[in-house]
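In response to the reviewer comment on reproducibility (Comment 2.3), we provide here a single inverse folding case reported in full, input and output, so that an independent group could reproduce the run without further information from us. The structure tokens appear first.
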């Protein structure tokens, strides 16, 4: 397991890769305080986000689903929703750890739209 997942104070990537900075056309801030940050993500069919990060683990509320490819900053596939048994049932809520630099491509035919509640406080 990566150190940044265990300890949120260890974050090796620059703030310029934060989702709101690096991919503002696909991420919108709903609210933020010292404990949480709530984002809306919208990726239309055929679009790919610029490479970006998500520093904190999140609860994802899926508003509309579409298949996707997540690649790292070198273009290597990290996740393909079409190949994931866990995603075959089209989940409505997901848990996700912090994400290192990645891009996400909507390879489906619907908008991929979700709300993420990023948890800034480490679990105790």
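Designed residues, in position order:
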């Amino acid at each position: 397991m990566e150190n940044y997942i265990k300890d949120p104070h260890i974050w090796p990537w620059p703030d310029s890769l934060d989702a709101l900075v690096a991919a503002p056309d696909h991420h919108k801030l709903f609210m933020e305080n010292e404990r949480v940050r709530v984002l809306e993500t919208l990726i239309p069919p055929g679009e790919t986000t610029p490479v970006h990060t998500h520093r904190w683990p999140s609860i994802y509320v899926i508003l509309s689903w579409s298949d996707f490819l997540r690649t790292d900053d070198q273009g290597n596939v990290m996740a393909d929703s079409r190949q994931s048994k866990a995603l075959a049932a089209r989940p409505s809520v997901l848990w996700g750890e912090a994400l290192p630099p990645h891009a996400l491509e909507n390879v489906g035919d619907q908008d991929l739209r979700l709300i993420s509640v990023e948890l800034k406080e480490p679990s105790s």
